[in-house]
Design a protein that fits this description.
A six-stranded mixed beta sheet has the order 6-7-8-3-9-10, with helices on both faces. Strands 2-1-4-5 form a four-stranded antiparallel beta sheet. It has helices spanning 49-56, 78-81, 100-110, 115-128, 144-154, 174-191, 202-208, 226-232, 274-287, 302-310; strands at residues 4-15, 21-33, 38-42, 64-69, 72-73, 85-89, 162-166, 194-198, 211-216, 219-224, 237-244, 257-263, 266-271, 291-298. It is an alpha/beta fold. It folds into two domains: 4-231, P-loop containing nucleotide triphosphate hydrolases (Rossmann fold, 3-Layer(aba) Sandwich), CATH 3.40.50.300; 235-310, Alpha-Beta Plaits, CATH 3.30.70.
Length: 311
């Protein structure tokens, strides 16, 4: 059985009066997600990611099409789905004066936990998400990273079979993001939880996700593993150069050079074929009196694929 199955799903939002404005958030998308995987959903702002998650979480009704979660229809059988899934967002917020155990206990009661079972669950989640040292700290005084960990802990109170994570590392420092990703990976590895993840961080998607789908203008133009997407969306090769002086002015005008990006003291040129263009670029730089300190040739990364698909 699939964890998620979507067929011809459509959703339009209406706003304004004169004239009435229509926004087609989903345009007949199709998607299937097997159980036991971490599945990434990537796309620019306004692409339809949150709308799709909201429909799958039974928080929003579709206008057309069909969506099944854990074998149940999200419209007709929402009550059968809700106890078996949960959701956490990078923008989660809780009552400012409550402490982490109190927040977790509140949500645990909503899922029918009481007494010793509730106390055990709260202690388990506090330990799992490394909140022990902050048990007595009010929510408003927690750091952003701790608030994100608490949001993740809250989403686990009912031991969900399916977990939706909407930008779970949004705004976190790099070291905290690494720990958060390790916790997310552990949920799939140790609990077998199926996770549907949205993120703007391509490295995060590559590191965590077994498979990725891109959503754009409410449609899904591409899906696959990170490596498969790089092959599928063929946009050339990348030639990375460290130059002295550190200027690559004019490189973007050479034949076969699709674009050049300057970052961290290097220039990265996306070309139609490194085999054809590398010698040409090195020769041109030599003629300009530019010394090449280092050269690296590689395939485009997932971020470059994202940029290409988002055009």
């Amino acid at each position: 059985m699939l964890a998620v199955e979507v067929r011809d799903l459509a959703k339009t939002f209406r706003s304004g009066w004169f004239p009435r404005r229509l926004t087609r958030a989903l345009r007949g998308g199709n998607l299937s997600i097997p159980r036991g995987v971490i599945f990434g959903l990537l796309g620019p702002n306004g692409a339809g990611k949150t709308t799709l998650l909201s429909i799958l979480a039974t928080l929003l009704l579709p206008d057309a099409g069909e969506a099944k979660v854990l074998g149940h229809d999200v419209v007709r059988e929402a009550r059968a789905i809700r106890p078996r899934l949960n959701m956490a967002s990078g923008n989660s917020s809780f009552i400012w004066s409550l402490r982490a155990p109190e927040i977790l206990a509140f949500y645990g009661r909503l899922y029918g936990l009481h007494g010793k079972a509730l106390a055990r669950k709260v202690d388990e989640l506090v330990a799992l998400c490394e909140l022990e040292e902050h048990r007595k700290v009010p929510y408003q005084e927690l750091s952003t990273g701790l608030k994100q960990r608490l949001a993740l802990a809250k989403s686990l109170v009912n031991d969900p079979e399916l977990l939706f994570l909407d930008e779970p590392t949004l705004g976190l420092d790099p070291d905290i993001s690494v720990r958060m990703r390790a916790q997310i990976a552990g949920l799939r590895r140790e609990r077998g939880t199926t996770i549907l993840l949205t993120t703007h961080y391509m490295r995060e998607a590559e590191e965590l996700c077994d498979e990725i789908a891109f959503i754009k203008n409410g449609e899904i133009p591409a899906r696959g593993t990170a490596d498969a997407l790089k092959r599928q969306i063929r946009i050339g090769d990348v030639i990375a150069l460290r130059l002295d002086p550190a200027s690559g002015d004019g490189l973007a005008e050479l034949p076969g050079v699709l674009r050049c990006v300057f970052q961290d003291g290097r220039v990265e040129c996306t070309v139609d074929s490194a085999e054809k263009r590398l010698a040409q670029i090195l020769s041109w730089l030599h003629e300009q009196g530019v010394v090449v300190r280092d050269v690296d040739v590689h395939e485009p990364d997932l971020e470059e694929v994202f940029v290409e698909l988002a055009k």
